[in-house]
Every structure is written in structure tokens, then in C-alpha cells.
UniProtKB/TrEMBL annotation:
This is Transposase family protein. The keyword Metal-binding applies. It comes from the Bacteria. Residues 136-222 form the DDE Tnp4 domain. It comes from Streptomyces sp. R08.
Length: 229
């Protein structure tokens, strides 16, 4: 399974991305212009040595870039595995994911035909306005051990799993539909400090009344102001 075979399998197999072919097509159609615009903005920053249109072509077409990114985000698939799937170099996969993730994050989460949530503040406001409950929890993704001599290398060691990891805070509604996923932090970051750094405690204190379900890792989150951390 390489190249076109990987493309067809990822689109057809719901378990790989968690998205239907229709949603994937809509996602690619929306993110495509954003990616192209960012790509064009980067070109003038580099000295041109060839005529416009000359030089090497993309080995990984744009349609495959969001697919590789979605699989990586959902399953934490290593770039080496995606390299084998799409038949390109590892650096190509790494660069593609790095380029596609920002437009995906900027797109936000559509909760209704006319409502799209892009920030944590918008999520809290939306849940509070409707009187709905939310569920918050942290999730860890195992990562490659940072190189020797790298500053703060030990911060990536998770106290829970005793492995090198990064952590994100996830906020969903009562039905489990994900509304917000934070940027990753080193695995040693505990749940409460991460929530305070993201401003969740302040948003809940100053925003509309709402119920947030969480495990014991968030107990006492409102005991101190966020600027104390």
C-alpha cells in the first residue's frame, strides 16, 4: 500500500481518520486555499534561482497532506510509518504535517451550520449560553526521546506513564464531541497548571455558570489565581 493505495484506504476507512469521505472532502476544499496562500507568502522570502514554475515538484500532492496529518493526529502514527504509506521521504511527511496543522487549528470546530468555535473562550461561552455541561481531561501522546544535551530534556518525561510524551487538554460536550484541543505541552506538565496556563480557570470564574466534569487531576484548579503559576 503506497501512494494512491494509501490515499484510497485512508478516505474509505473511517477508523483511520474518524471522518467520512464527505467531511474529508469539505475539509480539504476549505484548508487547500489557506495552505496555498501560506505557501505563496513563503516564496518571496527566499532568493529565486530558477524561473517561475521551474525546479522540483511536490512529491506529496496537497490532497495527501491533510490525510497524513489527520492520521498522525488521531493515532500518533510515526512519520516513518507514513513515509512507507505515501512513498516519500520522512522529511517530506514532517514538513507536510507542520504546514497543514496550523490551518486545521485555525479552522476551529463547527458545532452548528452557523456556529464555529476557534478558541477556548468561545467554547466556554457557547456551553454556558446553552446551559450544557462540558468534560475536560488531559491526554498524553508518546513521542521520541529528545536528543541528548537538549535543554529541558527531562520535562518530556511523564510522571504517570514514565515515558517521553507530550500532553494536550481536551474539552468536549456531554455527548463526547470534541470542541477544543490545546497546543501540546511537555509530558511532565500536570493537568491543573496546564488548565491555568490556558486560562480555563479564569474563563470559568468570569464566564456564565456551567458544569464541567473532570477527574481528580483537576481538583482545586480554582484555589489559586492563574498568574501564580
Amino acid at each position: 500500500m503506497v501512494g494512491a493505495g494509501a490515499h484510497e484506504l485512508i478516505v474509505a476507512e473511517y477508523r483511520l481518520t474518524g471522518l467520512s469521505p464527505t467531511v474529508i472532502a469539505e475539509l480539504i476544499a476549505e484548508v487547500g486555499p489557506l495552505w496555498h496562500e501560506q505557501h505563496q507568502e513563503r516564496l518571496p522570502a527566499r532568493p529565486r534561482r530558477r524561473a517561475v514554475g521551474a525546479g522540483a515538484k511536490h512529491k506529496l500532492v496537497f490532497v495527501d497532506r491533510p490525510l497524513a496529518t489527520l492520521v498522525s493526529l488521531r493515532h500518533g502514527t510515526t512519520h516513518d510509518v507514513l513515509t512507507c504509506w505515501f512513498g516519500v521521504d520522512r522529511s517530506t511527511i514532517t514538513r507536510a504535517i507542520g504546514e497543514v496543522r496550523p490551518p486545521l487549528a485555525q479552522r476551529g470546530c463547527t458545532v452548528a451550520p452557523d456556529i464555529r468555535l476557534r478558541t477556548l473562550a468561545e467554547v466556554v461561552e457557547c456551553l454556558g449560553a446553552d446551559g450544557r455541561s462540558g468534560i475536560v481531561d488531559g491526554t498524553e501522546i508518546r513521542v521520541r526521546r529528545p536528543a541528548a544535551g537538549l535543554r529541558d530534556r527531562d520535562k518530556f518525561v511523564s510522571g504517570k506513564t514514565k515515558q517521553n510524551a507530550v500532553k494536550s487538554m481536551i474539552l468536549t460536550d456531554a455527548e463526547g464531541r470534541m470542541l477544543f484541543c490545546s497546543p501540546v505541552r511537555p509530558g511532565s506538565c500536570a493537568d491543573i497548571p496546564q488548565a491555568r496556563q490556558l486560562g480555563l480557570a479564569q474563563l470559568l470564574a468570569e464566564g456564565p455558570f456551567m458544569e464541567i466534569l473532570a477527574d481528580a487531576g483537576y481538583q482545586g484548579m480554582g484555589a489559586r489565581p492563574a498568574d501564580a503559576w
